[in-house]
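Q: My collaborator sent me two sequences in one message, no labels, and asked for predicted structures for both. Can we handle them in order? The first one she listed is below.
A: Yes, handling them in the order given. First sequence, followed by its structure tokens:
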Amino acid sequence: MISEPSSWRFECYDELPSTSDACIERAGKGEADGLAILALSQTRARGSRGRIWADPGDSLALSVLLRPDDTERAGNTFWAFIAAVAFYDGLANGSISHRLRIKWPNDVLLDGRKLGGLLVEVDGTPAEHVVIGFGANLVCSPRISGRHLACLAEHVPICDPHIIAPRILERLTHWRRIFQRDGFDAIKRAWLARSLPIGSPLVVSDGKTYSHGLFMGLGEGGELLLDREGKRERFVTGEIFYGDFSLRKMEADCASGH
């Protein structure tokens, strides 16, 4: 059963090592669907691809514990897209702006610079539980050599995690219901409305090679579709670059320690 916004069991802490680790620990003890944990500071935050997420302070550090129903268990790969749309809506307060874009599959960018990201951790096949971590720079962005990051305060005046977190939870409830009722096609349409326009130039990297092409949307399973000189290719993993490619490549190399 999907938790209503008012029935989320919302907990807030001044500091935690990791909100996602806290949710995973609680899942192991049998915690039910609908737990949400917010921390005003994290000391061991985790990002995607094994990276450490730098917390500059006054940030969003929110994780949720979900218990998928039968419909959701059939689409474990779709959680990143459901969560990304909810994340976007919560940050943007329900509006869609050309300045804010979802980068495949689930980063949120402001003016081409990373503002926030998701970490989805699924336990079991089919999933027994799902933990989704939402991290965003709100008032300021961390200073990381070679990277140019963004914060929400550059876009909207209200950047209080106590306000933004409940908005994300409300939208996550909404989009879970949409997925259950209408399937992934409805989520895909919403995701595409918040991402790059079709035909935008992209580069996909596996860390060694770089595939240049035009963004052509999402496949049935959420894979990225890239038109490479008239040939459509599908990518299920990879680092995505757009805008100033040389700058984005440099940022990625610095983030990975190269």
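Q: And the one she listed second?
A: Here it is, processed independently of the first:
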Amino acid sequence: MTTTPKQKITIAAIVLAGLIGTAAVLTTERHQETGEAEHGEEHAGEEHAAEKAHDDDRIRLSGEQLKAAGIAVQSAGPARLQASARFQGEIRFDEDRTAHVVPRVAGVAEQVPVQLGQRVRPGQVLAVIASTALSEQRSELLTAQKRRELARSTFEREKKLWQEKISAEQDWLQAQAALQEAEIAVQNATQKLAAIGATGASADLNRFEVRAPFAGTVVEKHLARGEAVKDDASIFTLSDLGTVWAEFAIAPKDLATVRTGQKVVVSSTAFDAQVEGTVSYVGALLGEQTRSARARVTLPNPQGAWRPGLFVTVAVRGDDPQVPVAVLADAVQTLENRSVVFVAEAGGFAARPVRLGRTDGQRVEVLDGLKAGEAYAASNSFVLKSQLGKAGAEHGH
């Protein structure tokens, strides 16, 4: 059979269309296989990244490394927090045991045997002052005493004469009145001397001794030998530093949390020491300038460590709350602006984000992220944080 040209063209077109269709099918299958392979690689990469991120929060430590780092492990659990409100304060003199010594007589200082900062005994002489006013008062006492002796002698004589019917009763009564007036004059002169702390008996009528009213330390001295002083001049400040005051200001919003008799802990950043006490006074009025109330704590100071002028922190104890889950404050670290606790697991620790609540400075309440009974790095957790940061840096390189 002879094939015409037209038939040849038709057969060629059919064959070409079949070849094109076969090529399209093969291309489609190849694209599908390539897509599946790429999707598989992408999925594997995501799983690897997730495993890497999971491992980035973990620190692997052997038992020897754990011991060398000094990391102690404890279990999270319930605790009673020591609730306290903190205030900034200052150590001041105990004003009940502080005296501004004045001479009470005008004169000139003849002796000043004590030095600034010296401890003195009760009644110890602080200064000797020569005073003309004191000399006049002692002279007045001596004159009154002489007149009393004379009045008594006259009274005894007139009494005897009256009893013997030699003189009139009126003379005896006049002598009795004169004696009583003389006795009053002596009492008056004695009380004048007592009011300024002087005695009547002295070889030098003008000698006045200024004495310490109680045992203490000379914290201020404003007198030198040969210096003239007034009767009301403050020449010494004497304070018993065996007790001091820790004074602090209370804002109106905190007035309800501070009451007389509450326990406090006073500490200072100047040295590693603290002392317990009680609130002895809370002011009833607010200061016009500060708009705060003053409160104070009376502190024992046997060693003299709490010096007036020292800035302190006063922690006023409140009601101690019980919390279900708490960890030591040193266990909490910050990673990428998150609070974390390193939880113990097989072969090391994992940094776990936590949500924190109240704290007393030693323990912290955990609201979320950690359960009671879970073990965590209680001390030296900063070592784990350092190792975690180092591992991240090495991986970045």
